[in-house]
Amino acid sequence: MFQSAKELETIFLTEGVFYRLLTNNVSHFCRSVAYIRRKGSFTDGTDALFVLLNPGKSLPVDGEDAIPFLTGEVDILPILPATPDNTMFQLMRLMERMEWNHVQIINLTDLRTGKFNEYLDGQKLMRTHRDSRHSIFSIDRYPELLDIVEGTDHIIAGWGTKQEITGAAEEAYTVLSELGEVTGIPYNKQPLYYHPFPWLRTKCIKWLDDMEEQLKGATKVV
Known about the structure:
Layout: H1 5-9, E1 12-23, E2 26-38, E3 48-52, E4 80-81, H2 86-98, E5 102-107, H3 116-128, H4 142-150, E6 155-157, H5 166-177, E7 182-183, H6 201-215
Parallel strand pairs: 3-5, 3-6, 6-7
Antiparallel strand pairs: 1-2, 1-4, 2-5
Helix pairs in contact: 2-6
């Protein structure tokens, strides 16, 4: 079963923590964490934490004007209602299969972009100016990461298979694997994992099938 976006929007709601990051007079839209919740469910726990490459096209429901500039700690920013993107809809499909009520999404970088070249340019800018605020895997944001991971049942990596992200993926995998078992659909080069939304419907269904099979034989994060 491959539910439509319209159908999924009647079942789930999405939220996110958004901010603008100013680095060397260049402003970036960022999202530190996203939430997908089943409507009508009330639970404190998180069924799964998805760790992806970077936020895609999701924005606050009220638009870009609702996004504040970062002036303090990321983890004190408000949670805003958000519009879902294709990746979020794909995660909702997995939630339906697993009968999950609540998942969270973090990324190797908070910098929001839908194009890989823009991702690379953003990472280069951050390295050049030694600005690590965009990454929840930076030392300064470790308490924030720890708080998120400790509340989840499963850690699922899906940051993609591009060679250029290997360094960031290795860094994230090292940190995450110390906190719990990291699952996902592994690529032939580790620690790279297939992205949940590979665009082609047949491949999307295969990811769902493989992930469901893996999860139903997995244990929760200890």
